[in-house]
Specification:
Blueprint (H helix, E strand, L loop, with lengths): L1 H23 L6 H23 L6 H29 L9
Length: 97
């Protein structure tokens, strides 16, 4: 059990560093399309988290699944709102009479 936990922590830390480096190198012009793609991926994470959180008995796995659903929903809704707001900046404004 301890080896699995240590391996999971190592993978999490390495993924955090790689994710930070990848995000840091993205130019601002690609931010909106990448954000839309990440929202779609978060939607997939919501489906997986719902499957984990589904059973009636409450143990640690189901609690983590519920937390994952909440955070993924916040990410999806907030990401779509920000993406929509950014796309509104590119629409032509109507001339006022």
């Amino acid at each position: 059990m301890a080896e699995g936990l240590i391996a999971a922590i190592v993978v999490f830390v390495l993924a955090s560093f790689v994710g930070f480096e990848v995000i840091n190198k993205v130019p601002p012009t690609l931010h909106t399309p990448l954000m839309s793609g990440s929202n779609a991926i978060s939607g997939i994470a919501i489906v997986g988290a719902l499957l984990i959180a589904g059973p009636k008995e409450w143990n640690l796995t189901e609690i983590f699944g519920l937390i994952a659903v909440v955070f993924a929903m916040i990410n999806v809704v907030g990401g779509f709102l920000v993406t929509d707001r950014m796309l509104q900046m590119f629409k032509k404004k109507e001339a006022k009479a």
